[in-house]
Amino acid sequence: MVRVIGQAGLIVLGLVSTCAAGEVTRGYWAFEPPARPEPPPRASLQQAERVRDPIDQFVFHRLEAAGLASAPEADRSILVRRAYFDLLGLPPSPEQIDAFVSDSAPQAWQQLIDRLLESKHYGERWGRHWLDVARYADSGGYETDIYHRNAWRYRDYVVKSFNDNIPYDQFVQEQLAGDEIWPDNLDLDPRRVYAVSDEKRRHLQARIATGLFTLGPRVHESGLDAKRLSYETLTDQVDTAASAFLGITLGCARCHAHKFDPFTQEDYFAMQAIFANAREVEIPLWTSMEEADWRQSYPKVVAVQEARQAYQLFVGSPEGKKNTPQSAQRKQELLGAIGQAVLALPQRAAGQYAVDYVGLMHIPTATVLAREHPDLIRPIHVLERGELARPMARSEPALPVSLAEATGISSELKRPFGARREFALWLTRADHPLTARVFVNRVWQWHFGRGIVATPNDFGNMGQPPTHPELLDWLANEFVADGWNVKNLHRRIMNSAVYRQSSRFGDESHFRKDPQNELLWRMDRRRLEAEALWDAVHAAAGTLNLKMGGRPVVPPLAADEIASLREKWHWVVSQDPAQHHRRGIYILVRRNFKFPMFEVFDTPVTSVSCPTRDVTTVAPQALWGLNNQSVFRQAVQMAGRVVKEAGAETPAQIERIWTVALGRGPTSAEILSARELLESLTRVEGAPLTDLPPALQALPPNRAHALAKLCLAVFNLSEFAFVD
Prior knowledge:
This protein is about 45% helix and about 5% strand. It is mainly alpha-helical.
């Protein structure tokens, strides 16, 4: 197949020159404001009757020009499963599938999409996507992996923002400069004691959004060198902002002029100067009156400490070391005194961020950005080869020159305050060449598995050229004109015929002319991400805890899983067993120790913004699915659910397993295979299962074990882990 070489390829071949400052010949598509192309005429298409949206006109036009037919619409049972996993990251129940399949109303598909977009679990699914881009983690990485105790508040902000359908331009502004655009606090309205206005809550949310720039990687020992710590922080902040919002590799210009894109070292350090006035602070999440109540109760904290000390002194005394009833009773009395002392402490924080009070000594806080005092702002210099010890000219806050020119404004910004505000407002201009394109491309990728630009964090010359440039620009323009409405963007994409295509399609000509399906002649089959697979296993088992928000949960690990963790106290298991079955988005994310199941299923590296997740097929995935005790426990729970819902008859049990796990009924061949497997497993004598669900206890032990093994086998089918 003949393929057009992009400008990056021409540069590598020496067919396009770069200047000393790294500027590529002007006119590169990504650095010019999006055009407003007209969709190809519908009447000119051979498949005009299939067109549901202008998206189809762009895609079908390219396919017909290439002489390729497009896939028919997928079966309704496949479409409903695709929609649920796409928008919620959760499988539909058999009843939800049946309801959609049997709904013949013309608007049934649109109504399904609307219902899913209104679900509170939509924000969890799409928030998880954004957290990849935001390089989210609960710890700093490197040797000591210091803990970011408030990072989860940023995670909850992201989930809430997607659920509330915050316009994307506002979403960007809040994260970059929420403290500068909406400065506020939770001070009381004196007319309403303890009352916090909705406006103040929104402003607080905007401040929490700046937590994006406080949860990056951090070297513990850099605290010994204030200059180095500041430099590492600014480097992370600039690189993250450039990757996440601009989709460019600006970090390449830290040590020298960018080799392929029009960015200089001066551009890079001018961006550092934009963030130089920001400092990391903790702000209280309750009002001054609630804080006063907590301070009133502070003697209770002292009482707890005194009771603890009394217990420790007794345990270390000769009397406490005796193994007598009197010693045991005294220990219980002292423990009771400790318990009677955390009782009168305030239990909840303020407003929408209300969570169970955590940390005996801590007022609930969020870690955010705030303005540094002018006298304390460190000067920023261009650094020779990026070396901190080799400063050159001083840098002032400014936009990248080439992008500022593309929007027709000066690159200079105000000093020293307001630079982040100006940067955020410039970034969200309607005519900005990158912001809308980059985000629309991300949404397209998260729906289709591949972006129109296959390198979402690199729209520059070394990135992949767009497969459908006119479609990308049309979507970006429509997105901005629609008020940066993210949910409407979902509706537009999912209502298209292109999105609704079958994945089970293609002949020799398709694989010869377009083996990677870049022209979208079918829907690509995609594997669930690690968190979605975790959720799907628990959903099928009926054990998924759908509680939302709060500090990270820490499920227990087997001895071999935690063996590689040097400091075992870094993995403090949540004591409430119900927490162990929360959705994957809420599981603790340590940079130096990934949750083992997530690691084998390609969870991203969190030291930098992750544009796309790898999808590998490796032996540990099968070992986890077949041998891990946590997944086998879920298979036991699913077996109990099946018996409860389908009764004791084998055919009904097999039918229920398939509909719950795969969203369809079993074929005759699958029924035969499942029966044979059940019978053979029933004849095997094995150790009796413990902690059986009530419905499973009514079966003979061997049969209960066999049914659990069958559920485990279905968990390991590729169909369970993939969405058509």
